[in-house]
Design brief:
The complex is a heterodimer of chains A (about 575) and B (about 190).
Chain A (H helix, E strand, L loop, with lengths): L5 E4 L6 H5 L4 H27 L4 H10 L12 H6 L16 E6 L4 E4 L5 E4 L4 E2 L9 E9 L2 H7 L4 E4 L2 E17 L2 E5 L5 E10 L10 E6 L4 E7 L1 E4 L9 H29 L19 E2 L9 E2 L7 H8 L3 E4 L17 E6 L5 E7 L2 E10 L2 H56 L7 H5 L1 E10 L3 E9 L4 E8 L5 E2 L2 E7 L6 E5 L3 E5 L5 E6 L5 E6 L8 E5 L1 E2 L7 H7 L4
Parallel strand pairs in A: 15-17, 22-29
Antiparallel strand pairs in A: 2-6, 3-4, 4-10, 5-9, 6-8, 7-8, 8-9, 8-21, 10-20, 11-12, 11-21, 13-20, 14-16, 16-19, 17-18, 18-19, 22-23, 22-26, 24-25, 24-27, 27-28, 28-30
Chain B lengths: L9 H16 L5 H16 L5 H18 L10 H17 L7 E4 L1 H10 L5 H12 L4 H12 L4 H8 L3 H25 L2
The chains are: A alpha+beta (about 575), B mainly alpha (about 190).
């Protein structure tokens, strides 16, 4: 990358007085009120609609006139239009689902299991107040799951994702909203003790046997953008073999066949590896540091016995650390050095990470546990180092020889597995082709339950998703009602069949719209009286540069998310 | 490198949060926050732009956006200024998105010695000679971090708050960018650019 920044050295900065000359709070406030006024007019327009439910005559007048009510607020700039709206912008009151509320003792943590099968694992001290101080006592956890495009729409969750200036849309495989209260006040999550989420969702997959690649994003309502947080650890949740549901049974049958193939592959690889054991990796000697207390443990002379529970034998110790003295490691807990004067009868030695061992000195009346590591001094160390360097060369050569010896056979196992896997996929494809699609049987079979595992260290919305690249084809669109009257200065929502996301566009003359020519699209706006006005665009239509969508009213007020969901189904 | 501490006490943040809540209820009460932060935000923008007039325009846009979005602001235990700097940083990036070559980087000689220390570079003149060419190899996000850390001497805690990442993440990023910068310095010196 080559930029050409204008780098200026030792620039004179303006004085405080010069800076203050530019301050003008009154003008800032005027500009704010001017822009806020436009938003308010739009909002007032909507509220007007809700009140109209109680005054039918007025409502009729509003419905008839709604496209023309607010010409002053018209804008063809989608960026400006959406910038003035709240980040979370539910299109109507009463559609959002209510959260499930559970209480947890913040000092102890706990596990919450939800009816969806999802779980929340809350460690102790997972909450803090807005000063960052850890809090104890009872905390209420408010939790909701959002699964499909209808949920995202009724919640007003933005699905656009700006990554380094490039706009994507997140296709969600499951989303949660979580917040916590104590005595009615919001509390925050302690980033040092994150919560673990196990979210169960169902996704439609074209490839029955392969796990999707998903990422976890958190919504930053200040930046009005999603922030990537971590990969999503996903696993299939198998079809329930004890279920009465024929779809679940069928899914289980195919999963079982794939699992059998996988088990067979692993067993073959294990058997192959057993034919040529991995050579022992030499242990690098360590020079005694001098400043740490040391112990001499001579197991071979019989002065001291290795107690049961040790995971190394005296002969192995002799081979590995023959002339070593045992240095008490800095990781060891504080101990009374008089313990080193005691005659201990037995010791127990267990391997720890790296070169460390856990040493338990045992006396009938007492015992002491230390962390120790073998170390050598002077010439013993230098000799051992020379031996180690030779052993490393031998080890690497033995390892390479083993890899070469096994590689061809390992590849043969993998190739065999690949062939069987492809055969299974082909068989599944034939099965699907032969399946009558009554009741969307095929789609239901390809809708698989999936478990997402991730951690969260903040409240708000968390989304298991993948970014969808912007559509290749863009056009302009105008939206009209059944009488041909223009609909503008509104949000138009668009969903592509088979994509679990919602696109938001500005309905305005010649406003841009992205199109997916091969997919059926649902396009709608929300009317003031909680009605929708909708259109469908079918796949395969000849692409055009400009579209006019005639939106048809649903004909009744929609009061719940379920009513909205029924209205927004693809046929 | 010694970096002066710029910390905001818990009591100050609490007081500021009360002012923010007041501004959420009534935009006119944003004024104390505006007066407190106008000067530092102005200087932040000025160091990245060509002249005072452009700086004043961008600053006015920063505070307008802050007012428009203040309803969404939640106190997260970080100073309010971090949020303003973040808006300012986005505003500068947005402004130069179409003309990145006009983006200004202000460097003081005194600050180059901090970089020299990081690079174990004794030859200060060598560093000064090739620094511009090496900085030109960085993308704008990486450049911002180097500016905040070395040319403005901000503590990692504050940088992390502005960039909305953890403090350790800010440190790791800085380390990686310094490695990149070292590499670019070597390459441009070899080419004699």
């Amino acid at each position: 990358m080559k930029n050409d920044y204008r780098i200026k050295y030792n620039r004179q900065e303006p004085s405080r007085e010069e800076v203050s000359k530019h301050m003008d709070f009154a003008s800032l406030l005027d500009r704010h009120q001017e822009t806020a006024g436009k938003v308010r007019r739009l909002q007032t327009f909507r509220r007007w609609g809700y009140r109209a439910a109680a005054a039918a005559a007025i409502a009729l007048a509003i419905v008839a006139a709604w496209p023309w009510l607010n010409p002053g607020a018209r804008s063809a700039d989608p960026e400006a239009f959406f910038a003035q709206q709240p980040c979370l912008n539910p299109p109507a009151a009463g559609w959002k689902s209510t959260p499930v509320v559970n209480k947890v003792n913040a000092d102890q943590g706990g596990v919450i299991e939800y009816p969806s099968g999802s779980r929340l694992v809350i460690p102790a001290y997972a909450f803090m107040d807005d000063r960052g101080q850890r809090i104890g006592g009872e905390v209420e956890i408010h939790y909701r799951e959002l699964h499909d495009y209808v949920d995202f729409f009724v919640d007003g969750v933005p699905m656009r994702y700006d990554s380094n200036g490039r706009a994507y849309h997140l296709e969600s495989a499951g989303m949660i909203e979580i917040f916590a209260l104590q005595n009615g006040q919001a509390v925050k999550l302690n980033p040092q003790n994150p919560l673990q989420v196990e979210l169960v969702s169902a996704i439609y997959t074209q490839d029955f046997f392969s796990l999707p690649s998903l990422l976890v994003y958190q919504l930053d309502t200040l930046d009005r953008n999603w922030q990537y947080r971590q990969p999503d650890a996903v696993s299939w949740l198998g079809g329930d073999p004890s279920s009465d549901d024929p779809i679940a049974l069928e899914q289980h049958k195919w999963e079982k066949r794939l699992a059998a193939l996988e088990q067979d592959r692993q067993a073959r690889i294990r058997a192959l590896e057993a034919t040529a054991p991995v050579p022992d990796k030499p242990v690098k000697p360590e020079e005694a540091r001098g400043e740490r207390p040391t112990l001499e443990l001579d197991f071979l002379s019989g002065d001291i016995a290795l107690a049961p529970g040790s995971d190394i034998s005296p002969s192995e110790l002799e081979r590995l650390h023959g002339k070593a003295i045992w240095e008490i490691a800095p990781e060891s807990a504080q101990f009374d050095e008089r313990a080193l004067q005691v005659t201990w009868e037995q010791v127990k030695l267990r391997r720890l990470e790296g070169r460390n061992y856990e040493l338990t000195l045992i006396h009938p009346k007492n015992q002491l546990t230390l962390v120790v590591r073998p170390a050598l001094m002077g010439d013993d160390y230098r000799r051992a180092l020379a031996v180690y360097e030779r052993q490393v060369l031998e080890y690497e050569s033995a390892l390479a020889a083993r890899t070469t010896q096994l590689e061809a056979q390992r590849q043969a196992i993998e190739d065999g597995f690949g062939r069987q896997y492809n055969e299974l996929q082909r068989e599944f494809g034939h099965f699907m082709d032969g399946l009558a699609n009554e009741g969307n049987l095929r789609e239901r079979l390809l809708r698989r339950r999936i478990l997402h595992r991730f951690t969260i260290n903040g409240t708000g919305f968390w989304n298991c998703a993948r970014p969808l690249a912007p559509a290749a084809q863009t056009a302009t669109a105008r939206y009209v009602d059944e009488q041909g009257n223009a609909i503008d200065n509104q949000t138009a929502f668009v969903v592509n069949r088979g994509e679990n996301t919602v696109y938001r566009y500005l309905a305005a003359p010649n406003a841009p719209l992205a199109l997916h020519p091969d997919r059926e699209q649902l396009i709608w706006v929300v009317l003031p009286d909680k009605e929708l006005a909708m259109a469908r665009r079918m796949p395969g239509e000849e692409p055009r540069d400009a579209y006019t969508f005639t939106l048809h009213k649903t004909g009744k007020q929609l009061n719940t998310a379920e009513e909205v969901r029924r209205a927004l189904q693809f046929k | 490198m010694s970096v002066p501490k710029k910390t905001v006490s818990a009591a100050d943040m609490q007081e500021e949060w009360v002012q923010v809540q007041a501004a959420q209820r009534d935009p006119a009460r944003f004024e104390p926050l505006y007066r407190r932060y106008y000067d530092p935000i102005f200087r932040f923008v000025y160091r990245r732009t060509e002249d005072e007039d452009l700086t004043a325009d961008l600053c006015s846009q920063v505070f307008l956006k802050a007012l428009q979005r203040i309803q969404d602001y939640e106190h997260r235990g970080v100073p309010f200024s971090a949020w303003l700097y973040r808006i300012a940083s986005n505003e500068v990036s947005q402004h130069y998105r179409s003309n990145p070559q006009d983006r200004v980087v202000s460097v003081d000689d005194a600050r180059i010695s901090d970089l020299a220390e990081e690079f174990f570079e004794d030859d200060y003149e060598h560093l000064q000679k090739y620094l511009s060419a090496a900085l030109n190899q960085l993308n704008e996000k990486d450049l911002q971090l180097i500016e905040m850390r070395f040319f403005e001497q901000r503590p990692f805690k504050e940088i992390a708050e502005i960039m909305n990442v953890t403090e350790s993440n800010a440190k790791v990023k800085t380390y990686r960018i310094l490695e990149k910068l070292k590499y670019h310095l070597r390459s441009v010196a070899e080419r004699g650019v």
